[in-house]
Each structure stands twice: as C-alpha cells, then as structure tokens.
C-alpha cells in the first residue's frame, strides 16, 4: 500500500509562494486518509458478515435435515455402547432337539469405591453377613486404606443385590454383567466344560470358554457374524439324563470310585450321551487340582476321553476280526489253547480251564487269552499295528472337546511278539473308552470307520472300509454269543438283541506294576445286533461286589449288568421297539365250522 504524505512538498512550496496556509493541505490529506480507512473497514466487515451468514445457513440446514430424519424414524430407547458389544455376543448351546444346554443370564457385579463410603466398618459387617465367604478383616483393610476401587463379587443373585442395596452405602456399586448359565446343573458337565469372565470392566465383561465345547468352539460362540445361531450338539438331553442316573446307581452299587459311559450312533459317529463320574456343576466349576494330585481324583477329569486305560478283553474281537479279514481263520476254525503259552520267561494263561482247543467263535465267547494270542501270532506284529492304526487306536481321538487331545494312547516302546500277543487281548496298550466306542462302531456298521463327534450330523459319516461286511457280520454274531451264552450273560435284555464283550484289566500302579485287587472293568455293547444302531461302552474304576459269597471284580459281574440296565432304560427312549417272541397258546381249543 502506498501512503500519501500529509504535508507533500510539491504542494506546500507553491502554496507558501502564493501566501496560502500549508496546514489546510495537511488537514485535507488527513481527511482523505480517514475516508480510505473507513472504506476498507466497511468492506472487511461486510465480508465477515457474509461468511457468518453462510455458516448459520448451513447449520440451520443440517439441523433441519437431522430433525426431519428423526421425525420419520421409529422411536427407540438409546443404548449404551459401553458393555453390550461384549456381553451379548456368546451364542447358546443346544442338544440335538434344540433344548438349551447353555445360555446367557443377566446379572450384576458388586464393587466398592472406598473414598465414597460413609461407614466402611458397618458396610464390611453387613457384607460378610450377606456373603459368608468374604473375609471381614480384609474388607476393613481395603475400605479404610488407600485403595480407590476393588471388586467384591464378580456376580451376585437378585436377592443378594437387594440385600446390598439395603445397606445404603453410596460407595457400594453394581455393574451390569451377563454370565453363562447351565440350566441343567451337572448334566453333561464334562462335555459343556464351563465358562468364565475374560476382559472385565465396570459396565461389562466378556464371557470366554475354559473347558469342554465352551473352549473348543469359543471362537464360533463369540463370533457376531453367526447372528447368535446356537451350537447344536449330538447329545440328547433325555438320553443323557437317563444315562447319568443309571451310571451313578451302578457305580454306587458296584462300589466303584469312578465310572464312564458312551452311547454312539454307529453310522454317524454322533455321541448321543457321554458321562463321567464323579462330575461337577459348571455353574460353580471347581478349581483344578493342585500339583502332585492324581488328576483322575478330580471331578474335572473326563474319564471318557482323558482316562487312558488297558481295556482288557474288549480288544479280542478286533484280533478275531483281523484274522478273519486276512483269511487266516473263519468263525469255526479250531485253535489250540493248551497252556500256559510261554514266551521267554513270560507265561500267558486263561482265567479258567477251557480244554485243549476252541473254535474262534468260542474263543471270543469264553474270552480265552491263549486262543487270542495264537491268532495274534498268525497275524504278526506289523499287520496288527497297521490294523490298530487304521482303527485310530494309536493316536488321540478327534472328539471335539479340548480334553480329548490329552487322551494319547500308551503304546509299548518295543512292539515285540510278546507285545503283539498281549495287545491282542487288551494288555500292553492303553486307550480311552472313546477309542473303543469308535472301534466297535466300525464293526457294527458293516466294517466302515467312523469318527466320534459331539456335533449333530445330517446323515451317515462313514470313512474307509476296515473289514468286509461278511467279517463284520461274523464279528457281531460272536459278540451276540458272548451275551447269550458267554461271559456277559448279565447284559442280556429281554426284547433286545444285545451283543458285546467284557474286559477286566488289572489297574496299574502310579510307580509301575499292577494292583492285585483293583481292576478297570469294561463292557462294550452293540445293540440290536440283528440291525445294529448303537454302541454302548461302560467302564468302572475299581468295582467290587459281593456275590455268591465271593468278591467279584470282573466286568461280567460289574460293568455288564450296569450296561444291561442302561440298555433297558435307553432303548425305548431311542425309539427301538422290543422284539417279543409269541408265547405258546394254552387253554384254547381250536374248532372248525
């Protein structure tokens, strides 16, 4: 900007020469300068007013548009974003009929802000009366110390919440929570596992799985992309309840320290029920055992998939089936069973004297160790191992709960000929009852491998062929003979054709060797054998019962009758109609017209 001097010499000198006052020129220039300054200020103010007017017009348009949108939308209660994204994202778990096994439940947590408490000592006394497990001295120390915040209870009932509210202390506060609820209590507790809180805040806490299917399918259950679709299991709630009731009664009657049972569909691999005793309530899941404690003593221990046992003579049918599949024998082939059968310094003996020879069928019915070992010698080590591997007996079962991966079979370090003979009758190899169920299902469905699953299936899920249909049928006939005229007569159920095999194995000691008076008793059943549909495994840990004035521990006296009672209870629930043979007609005289 060019500034004009107030007293320019070009005008001052001529004005003086003419006798004029030069001050007039200065006043004229000052007036002109002020006029220019006012014009510039006016222009600047008008620009600012224009910008401000445009801003207000835009603001009014935005507000008016928002009001129009709100006026045309449905009214809704405002929702706090703080905790809903965490609390409401876990899906339900249901059985195969859609009945609830696990769901969510709205509750509250209790916390304290000591600086806001009016009477900390009185509050501590009243809280201990409401929650007897709280430590009063600890509460008093926390309430009167320097702490600004502390959790008191992560979840409380409505009654407890009201009782705390009645204390009236402003420093006791509640936070909304959504906890996992298992409405059936202990039912199927080992399958469901349990859940706990993960990330926690005052207004929300995420629910995460800690065991069982809750942990196995944690990502699915928490994935909002599933739209809250429930996880459908293969379990049947009614069947599971009846199974656990019969198994518990059998365990107590047989004085066993533990028990497990598995009911499996032989075509789909679906586990319809699976129970392990003792059990627990997942709503109040106990803490894991401390170090140095035998895991099997804990109610958290799942005997169906974590219990790795020698399952004894239940393995004999696999040996017979393989020998028949290889063409080495048929059901009527006579085998020399004279004993004892010696291998080096070791001897193999039978439970009783069965004579000099038996057919393959009678070897299974009588449960001859020597006869089965003779079959194993014909099969050979490599072929036996390959067959058991195909059956899935040499690796952890793929059953979809996290604990199943820990059920790794125990195999001999040196799979010698002696190992081949002992493994043929279920000694020297340890597997889980779930392995056994899958193996028997393969024989029951006509010789095809199935994978055990806890998820509901849409149809048969059979895999590779293990044995031919003829061999599978012959194996079922042998299993039927075990029940009708062999070691498992106590498992026979009127109206249902039950087949199966008993197995009694000495229980190993923790530091090596075997107990002489403790066994693992197992009965593996297939029913009905004329049209197989289900496999049932019942295993008892250290059973013992007095019968006919003697201590009885073998599976024929313990596991078999429990399985028979279970089949009698479950078969009608499964929709299986009993086959009643017509009784002879008496007291009727036939006449003709």
Count of distinct strands = 20
Oligomer: single chain
Under the CATH scheme, which architecture of the largest domain would be assigned? Answer: 3-Layer(aba) Sandwich
Question: Roughly how many Å apart are the termini?
Answer: 142 Å
Q: Strand fraction band?
A: 15-25%
Low-confidence stretches: 76-85
CATH-defined fold name of the largest domain: Beta-lactamase
Figure out the total of helices.
18
Mean pLDDT: 89
Biggest beta sheet attributes: 5 strands, mixed
Helix content: 25-40%
Please explain how this structure is put together.
With 593 residues, this protein is an alpha+beta fold. The chain has 2 domains: 84-232, Alpha-Beta Complex (Penicillin-binding protein 2a (Domain 2)), CATH 3.90.1310; 239-285 and 297-573, Beta-lactamase (3-Layer(aba) Sandwich), CATH 3.40.710.10. Helices cover 37% and strands 20% of the residues. The protein has 18 helices and 20 strands. The strands form 7 sheets. Strands 1, 2, 3, 4 and 7 form a 5-stranded mixed beta sheet that branches. Helix 4 runs antiparallel to helix 5 (136-144) and helix 10 runs antiparallel to helix 18. The radius of gyration is 41 Å and the shape is elongated. The protein starts with 8 loop residues before the first helix and ends in a 20-residue tail after the last helix.
